[in-house]
Amino acid sequence: MIVPQEYYLNSDVCFLAKDLLGKLLISNIDNQFCSGIIVETEAYRGPDDIASHSFANRRTLKNNTMYLKGGCSYVYICYGIHHLFNVITAHENVAHAVLIRAIEPVAGIDFMIQRRPEKTLYNNLTKGPGSLSQALGINKNFDSVELWNKNSPIQIHNLNTKYASTEIASSLRIGVESAGESALWPWRYFVKSSPYVSAHKKIFIP
Questions:
Q1: pLDDT by residue (tens digit) across 101-153?
Q2: pTM, whole model, 2 decimals?
Q3: Do 171 and 114 meet the contact criterion of CB atoms below 8 Å apart?
Q4: CB under 8 Å to 204, separation ≥6 — which residues?
Q5: Residues 161, 156: Cα–Cα separation, whole Å
Q6: In the 3-class helix/strand/coil scheme, how is 169-193 assigned residue by residue?
């Protein structure tokens, strides 16, 4: 069942970052259907999070999508190479987002391999935010997609998977070391047992 838009309007971005674990991310791009279970996320909260693109309510052409109503995609390019896929949360003009860092492939694995031929090892196909976007065919053209819309090329579905608190770990977010005190917030969440998680930093058990 597709996740409804109302789900994304929750103002607690950390809750959603954890709750999205176990949900199914689907892409149907160029007639290539792919899907994977979300196993790693990071929360970003404007305007007080220095690591967020919306820190201090900063608004640019690059991050304007973050201010849409929850339930839309936010795709940006990192280091001029990698497309990173985020889920916008909360109400319009609040600018919270959840970065999807890793998924466990379920369907369309052959298509994923075609898109990432240099990474044929199964657990490397979708390990890391740039890798999963490439495997699913997600690029900047899919910024601001309505994830709750059944006609959208990218959707998130419920699988009725609920992880126990002992199955989920949190750590510092990756690549935000220059974000002052925000760099110390343990807002990266992942399924501890998953071999598809992109990296393991110092772990904080909730």
A1: 999 999 999 999 999 877 656 678 999 999 999 999 999 999 999 999 999 99
A2: 0.94
A3: no
A4: 169, 170, 171, 186
A5: 13
A6: EEECCCCCCCCHHHHHCCCEEEECC
